[in-house]
């Protein structure tokens, strides 16, 4: 998938003419279906079932984009957030801004990446029930997150890290 995040941040807009979140909103981008259909749709896992004796056993999974420290620092650099601040301050500023998604409430979960590390994830869907699995079909939302986060990889399914519950 192409990285189209730069084209959604107009450089010609006068400072403070519109809220900064409005400048990130994709406007004249190709349709989400055209972008995302070019890659294979996500494979759906079985529904969440913790009965280990069942042949249908499946842990709770989250479908979304991983938000690593490296991605947060790159986002802070790209948008000049706290350029003279510490790494923690830049990461914190980027995290605060990323959560200000202009089209809805961000859904964030803690998951395990492929190496077993616990990382934040912007949730697009879960395997909790068939309705939650259905959110993987929302190509517009997937595309909006993809552009907003400046991603270069597709979202994936990750096991939920239950140790990080509030």
From TrEMBL:
This is Uncharacterized protein. It comes from Pluteus cervinus.
């Amino acid at each position: 998938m192409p990285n189209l995040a730069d084209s959604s941040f107009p450089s010609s807009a006068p400072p403070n003419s519109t809220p900064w979140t409005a400048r990130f909103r994709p406007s004249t981008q190709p349709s989400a279906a055209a972008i995302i259909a070019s890659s294979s749709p996500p494979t759906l896992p079985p529904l969440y079932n913790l009965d280990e004796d069942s042949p249908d056993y499946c842990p709770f999974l989250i479908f979304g984009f991983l938000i690593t420290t490296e991605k947060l620092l790159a986002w802070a650099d790209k948008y000049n957030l706290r350029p003279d601040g510490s790494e923690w301050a830049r990461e914190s500023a980027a995290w605060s801004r990323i959560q200000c998604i202009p089209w809805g409430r961000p859904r964030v979960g803690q998951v395990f990446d492929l190496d077993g590390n616990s990382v934040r994830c912007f949730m697009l869907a879960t395997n909790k029930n068939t309705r939650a699995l259905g959110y993987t079909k929302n190509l517009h939302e997937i595309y909006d997150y993809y552009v907003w986060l400046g991603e270069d990889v597709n979202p994936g399914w990750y096991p939920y890290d239950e140790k990080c519950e509030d």
